[in-house]
Amino acid sequence: MTVDKVNLIKHRLKVAQDRMKSYEDAHRKEMEYEVGDKVFLKTSPWKEILRFGKKGKLSSRYVGPYEILERIGPLAYRLALPPELSQIHDVFHVSMLRRYRSDPSHVIQADEVQLSDDLSYEELPVQILDTKEKVLRNKTVQLVKVLWKNHSVEEATWEPLEAMKEKYPHLFSDSSMNFEDEILLRGEKCWAPIRFKHAFVFWGVD
Prior knowledge:
By secondary structure, the protein is of the alpha+beta class. 19% of the residues lie in helices and 40% in strands. The strands form four sheets. Strands 1, 2, 3, 4, 5, 6, 7 and 8 form an eight-stranded mixed sheet that branches.
């Protein structure tokens, strides 16, 4: 290898290192807060419904904002928490925080959920939006699309029908739904009309 090639490799390595350092410095600056700043605190909403043996996690939500009281080392902060969060340790890693300018649609009130010590809580379903079948190796599983409280329609998840009916029967009691009933329409299979409270939804019909 010639001297010119060695110098070229060294130059490229230095450029890459400088670029990485610039990115890290900018990211570190974005993640730093001052005493008196207000920040949101990240929580982890969970679904109690098991899908294929695993409990599901929903998109993160944030509570707050809370004031920063103290910086603890380079990566942690002490927050002024309200009485309803008194059971939670008040020092948090910077990755658990988000600046006050966060998207309001991702913010919930701490007194509206039962937060555990690890900042997780059980999210509740509010409506069934759709249904489908999932074919596995040796069986077919019926799934329902669930809208969760504090989450948008775009964040709805597919859950096993039987598990949802067992855990949340109230979602199914006030309807004429029967997922086993199918009708033929223009030679195509589709679900029968399903009533939710005072609205009718037709699935599988153009």
